[in-house]
Amino acid sequence: MSYRKEKVLSAEQLTQMLSHAGAAYPGELTLEDINHLFLEVFHNGVHGLCFSLYEDGQRPGDVISEEQVRRRMEIIKPYTQWVRSFSCIEGNEFIPKVAKEMGIKTLVGAWLGDDLEKNEQEIEALIELARKGWVDIAAVGNEVLYRKDLTEAELLAYIDRVKKQLPAGIPVGYVDAYYEFSHRPAITAACDVILSNCYPYWEGCPFEYSLGHMHQMYDQALDAAQGKKVIITETGWPSQGESLKGAHPSYENAIKYFINTQLWAGDHDVEVFYFSSFDESWKVGAEGEVGAYWGIWDKSEKLKFGNGHI
């Protein structure tokens, strides 16, 4: 089937059908239909992907080679316009370098935490990468307020420092959960662009309501932004692992969530970075079993969806 070429169904009808698993819709999509639809949407390309750097057995803190980054970037290159990185050191600095060589735009993040010495390394590396022309959007920190690693005043000082030292024309923002931008107007005011993470799964939302819930998350960030651009910097659904309240990981829910997100983003002109490109085993320690299964490709770099798997 071809939802764009043949106009068999509108995007709204498709997302309604996909969001209500098992509902008795006329012409209900089969799993084979869903797999074909995934492949069509995916091969049409997505706005952005969050870059998964670490192979099995690796974790943050390990130094990663440029060759490894280049190999994984070659895999995702045909499918995305943008790539998002989360750090600027220990091999992460190769992500924007290689992406720009391949014609991919970059949202480059400095990872901030409670280690002030490491924060200095990250901030200086972000500034250096930007001066080399490898940064299209700069993100100063990721969920550092959510984790309570820094105070709001400390984060504002980092944002101000980066804004003053970056070349002109590079927007600077901060990544956090959508609701933080409502709760922290000083942070919102300091950002050139609002970088919002929207995860219905992590709020225990049942799959059938997930698209509507994500839309509400985006709208809340949009209201807080007061006219500034809002980008969804992370959203996704795990294909395996533990359930969280009414949110259940599965192959079918993950593939449907991806399709729903892309159709909705295209219809509403929303820029979305999908989380994530590859499964990463190290995330089990941080998030439980479910943490290892957010990728579009598995940990062996094989595409997980669209091949008839259940």
Q: Features of this protein?
A:
single chain; 310 residues; alpha/beta; TIM Barrel; 8-stranded parallel β-barrel; 8 strands; globular; disordered N terminus
How far apart are the first and last residues' alpha carbons, in Å? 19 Å
CATH class annotation of the domain at 45-54 and 64-173? Alpha Beta
Question: What proportion strand?
Answer: 5-15%
The run of helices and strands is: HHEHEHEHEHEHHEHEHEH
CATH H-level superfamily title of the domain at 45-54 and 64-173: Glycosidases
Spatial sequence of strands, sheet with the most strands: 1-2-3-4-5-6-7-8
Tally the helices.
11
The helix/strand class is alpha/beta
Helix content: 25-40%
Give the rounded overall mean pLDDT.
92
Q: Using the 3D structure, state the CATH architecture of the domain at 45-54 and 64-173.
A: Alpha-Beta Barrel
Please state the CA-atom Rg, rounded to the nearest Å.
19 Å
Largest sheet descriptor: 8 strands, parallel, barrel
The fold-level CATH name of the domain at 45-54 and 64-173 is TIM Barrel
Q: How many strands?
A: 8
Large-scale geometry = globular
Spans of at least 5 consecutive residues whose pLDDT stays below 50 are: 1-8, 21-27
